[in-house]
Structures are given as structure tokens and as C-alpha cells.
Amino acid sequence: MSSPLGRGGRVRRGRPVSNAGDNGRVKLERKHALVLLGIAIWNVVTYVTFIKNLAATEGRPTGYYVAHTVLIVVNLLIAALLGTWGVRAYKASRAEQKVNA
Asked: How many domains does the chain contain in total?
């Protein structure tokens, strides 16, 4: 008689989970890698433009510059993280493609 919970007898988020092939890692394909890289590049391009525009602004209170500088730093860090994930996913997809070829 089989268990209603699946092979492993565990439940994750209301769904039965089997132990077969479940290593807990997310598998990203090449299309996901390209989306991540595209978003990272877009963030860098738009925020570099924002930096130039912010530098050309005069007569604002200090808080304005501090707040926008924090936004710029955070978004560039997000771009770096997404870019790193994109590069790793792209390399992994290429390596898997070579193995399957």
C-alpha cells in the first residue's frame, strides 16, 4: 500500500515530495540567464544615467542627494547580484549543453 504523501513521506507547502531527484536546487535554463543578464544591464544603464542627472542637479537639500545616492547604490548592488546569477546560470546551461551533446 502506497503512502498518500509520496515516496519520502514528506510534505512541502501542501504538496507531496518525493526523494527522487530532489536536491533542493533551482535549475535555471539559458533563457532565464539571459533575462537576468538583461535586467542587470538595464539597471546599470538606467542608473548610470540617473547618476549623471543627479550630478547635474543643484540647489537641493542634502537629504535629497543622500536618499538618491542610497537608491543608486542599492540598485547597482541588485544589478551586480542579478548579473552574477545570470553569468552562473549561463555557464551552467552551456556546460549542461556540452554534456548532453
From this structure: 1
> How far is CA 25 from its chain centroid?
14
Calpha distance 75→83 (Å, rounded): 12
Q: Determine, yes or no, domain membership for 9.
A: no
Q: What's the rounded Cα separation, in Å, for the pair 36 and 28?
A: 10
In a domain, 3, yes or no: no
3-class SS of residue 15: strand
Q: pTM of this prediction? A: 0.70
Residue with cell 502506497: 2
DSSP H helical ranges for the chain: 30-56, 62-100
Contact 50, 72 (CB under 8 A): yes
The confidence score (pLDDT) of residue 28 equals: 82
